[in-house]
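Handout, section 3.2

Students often ask what a structure token actually looks like in practice. Rather than define it abstractly, here is a full record for SAM-dependent MTase RsmB/NOP-type domain-containing protein. The first block is the sequence as you would receive it.
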Amino acid sequence: MLPMVDSNFESYYASKLDPYCNSKDCIVSLKKHNIPVLLVLSKHTAQVKALWNFQGLDYLPLEWYPHAVTWPKALPFGEKLPGFDEGFIYPLNASSILPPLTLGVTPGEIVLDGASAPGGKTLVLWQQMMNEGLLVANDMSYVRLMRQKNLMNARGIENVVFESQPLETLYKKYPETFDAILLDAPCSSEKHVLAKPEELTKWTPQRIKNLAKRQIQLFDGAIKALRIGGRIVYSTCALLADENEDIVSNILAMHPELQLESWELDDVPGMQGFEVIGNSFDPKNVRRILPHIEKHMDPMFIAKFVKN
């Protein structure tokens, strides 16, 4: 049974989303459980293929990302996957692969995951870096960061430094240091709000305004740790332009040293951003995942900047 939606929440989101998409379909899709895809690092691919082949399970990578596979059809969802206990598999929603994939890091670079826990996006970054260079995983929650550290250690992940510092001041330790930064910012995360009745009862429009202010603060701190010529990806799992397109527009107005990059990954899921009146950039240069359009995927917004 799908959870009930607070009428104030639904009417507010309808007023904000209906100019751009079908808000009713979008909210209904948010309430559905999506089966995760399974991240398999290249160092574990052979073991997982052997384990699955032994049990007659199909190993089917995503068309647009070879290091993640779909849940095997022969195994009911929720049953234990061969290779999971060994740390060979990490379940995550397919949308979560897109922000680190967009950042496009390469072996040998110095990279920051600015809000890293629980760790799925960090694993995607590490896979791109092929264990060469330096990856810094930072999260304000020390408890969540330690869980992530245990996750990495269980998978034999090296070349990762763990920090638990405010992203706004991390640049004091790493001034203009990083070649690439991922900021998957704290956001409204409507899917999680709808999944928990206690969170829905606490929801107000003011929460969105507070989060938007916080997102700008985090971004301002992050770019001070980015070297000239470096790139930064801003992403959220929020639906509204307030935390997405409007943030991009504000960033460009506040930081003339930043350039919004054109979208380059044409073979991945998603659509262009919302055409918000008054915003100063081409919405084709940002990417959205809307859950009623991309089936089995959670919401995601992605924008990539270069620092000049």
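Discussion prompt for tutorial groups: The longest strand covers residues 226-236. How would you have guessed this from the sequence alone?
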